[in-house]
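We modelled the chain as a single entity of 151 amino acids. Its sequence is:
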Amino acid sequence: MVLVALWGTSFMFTAISVKTVDPASVVFYRLTLGAIVLALVVYARGHSIPFEWRAWGGFLIMAIAGNALPFFLITWGQQSVDSGVAGMIMAIMPLLTMVFAHYFVADEKLNHYKLIGFTLGITGVILLLGPVFEGGGREFWSGLAIFTAAS
């Protein structure tokens, strides 16, 4: 329930924030707060943050590809797309994870039950989001940005 509350409300808070703050600033503050909390947890557990350049190079790549870029695309997209729609677009993430796991994780093979689940899931996403992606315009590009972030 805590995870649902934290993850689900992030779309709501993003929708509220983009009304008065530009997307890049929203992402900056969100990531800065997350970095501070993470650093406090690391130190509270008695660990230290590495200071080698090699480690920070990897951190930088992961930060851009896994956090900054997706969060920016979602935040930018939510300027034109409602938070509920953004959350529905993000439903593609676990579906794609299941497909990628089939190819990249040894014990995660697709079977007919998973394929049925994938088919039902992707059909639901398409039915719910069809109106967002038809007609083009700003809403289309915003939805595509959120979809790209989820992929």
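As a brief sanity check on the tokenised model: The chain has a mean pLDDT of 88. The first helix runs from residue 2 to 17.
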